Amino acid sequence: MGPAFGLPPSLNLLHNFLVAEYENALVLGGGAAKGFAHIGVVKALEEAGFRPDLVVGCSMGALVGAFYSDGVKSHIMRGIARMVSGTKKKASDFIPAKLSSSALFDASKIEEFLVDFFGERRIEELPLRFACVAVDIAEGEELVFDAGLIAPAVRASISIPGVFPPLRRGKMILVDGGLLDPVPVRVARDMGAKRVLAVNVIPRRKHNLKRLTLKRPLEVERKTKLLAEIIQEIERLREFNIFRLTEKAVLTMESAIVEWSLTGPGAPELVLDLPIEVGYMEFHRADEAAESGYRIAKTVISSEAWRDFVK
C-alpha cells in the first residue's frame, strides 16, 4: 500500500499492517465522465437498504466513493454534479481546456473544490471505511491511500494521464489508479473484504491478437476512390483528434485490465456492469450518466444474483 498523505512514516508502516475484516465491500471503478453513473448506483443501494462496510474507489469512483463514505446522499451528489457540469458551459468552466506539457485540461478548480469540501479532514475520520488508488509513474507502483488527507488522495486518483496534470508529492508523480487497477477489487480483498460488489463502467474486452500485413497504398487506388468514400474517410480521421485519441487509448488499455480483474483470482461475488452511452470526456452529461446507473442498478437489485449476494 502507498504512503498516506499527512501520516508520519512510522505510523504509516504500522497502519499498512493493520488489516480488518469487512463483510461487504463496494468497489467503484474509473471511467471519467462515465463514472457519474456511480451516483445512480448509490441511490439504488440506498433504496435497497444496502450499506457496505468498506468502499474502495478509483478515479471517478474515488470521488463518488469519498462523498458516499462521508455520508453524502445520492441526491446531494447529483445536485453537485449538475452545479459544476450540468451543461457544456458549466463543464468547460469547471474543467477548462488548457494544453500544457503534461495535460489537456486544467485541474485547479477540481483541486479547489476538493479542498473546499474536505478541508484538512482525513480518510480515517470518514464514517465509512474508505480507500482509493493511484499510480506513481516515477516508480511504476500502484498506491493505496487508506489513511491521511482525503483531498490530495482523491486528486491523485482522478489524474487521468494526458487529460489532467499529475499530482506531484516529493519524488512521486501520481496519476489515475486506472492505469494499473481500474476496478480495484484486489485492494478490497487485501483490506479484508469477504464479499465484493464491483461497479464497472468500462466496456470489457478480451485481449486478442490479430495478424496484419501493412501495404503501401497505390496512388492509382487513391485516385479511383469514389468521392463519397474519400469524404467518409476524412470524417473518420477528423473524429480521432487529440481528445478522442486520448479517450480511445485509455479505454483500450483499461478494458483489458478490467476483464482480468473481474474474472481472475479473487474476482468479486457480484459485478454490476454499466453500459453507459455517455462518452469518456462528456462531463456535461453527468445527470444522464447518473440516471442510467440508477436504472441499471435497480434491475440488478431485483434479480436473483442480488438476492444471493445479500443473503
Commentary on this structure:
By secondary structure, this protein is α/β, with parallel strands linked by helices. Helices cover 44% and strands 14% of the residues. It contains 13 helices and 8 strands. Strands 1, 2, 3, 4, 5, 6, 7 and 8 form an 8-stranded mixed sheet that branches. The longest helix has 22 residues. The chain is globular and about 60 Å long. About 4% of the residues have low confidence.
Question: How would the blueprint of this fold be written?
Answer:
Blueprint: H1 9-17, E1 22-28, H2 37-48, E2 54-58, H3 60-69, H4 74-85, H5 88-94, H6 108-118, E3 129-136, E4 141-145, H7 150-157, E5 167-169, E6 172-176, H8 185-190, E7 193-200, H9 219-223, H10 227-239, H11 242-263, E8 270-273, H12 286-301, H13 304-310
Parallel strand pairs: 1-2, 1-7, 2-3, 7-8
Antiparallel strand pairs: 3-4, 3-6, 5-6
Helix pairs in contact: 2-4, 2-12, 3-7, 6-7
Describe the structure concisely.
The chain is of the alpha/beta class and 311 residues long. The chain has helices at 9-17, 37-48, 60-69, 74-85, 88-94, 108-118, 150-157, 185-190, 219-223, 227-239, 242-263, 286-301, 304-310, and strands at 22-28, 54-58, 129-136, 141-145, 167-169, 172-176, 193-200, 270-273. It has 13 helices and eight strands.
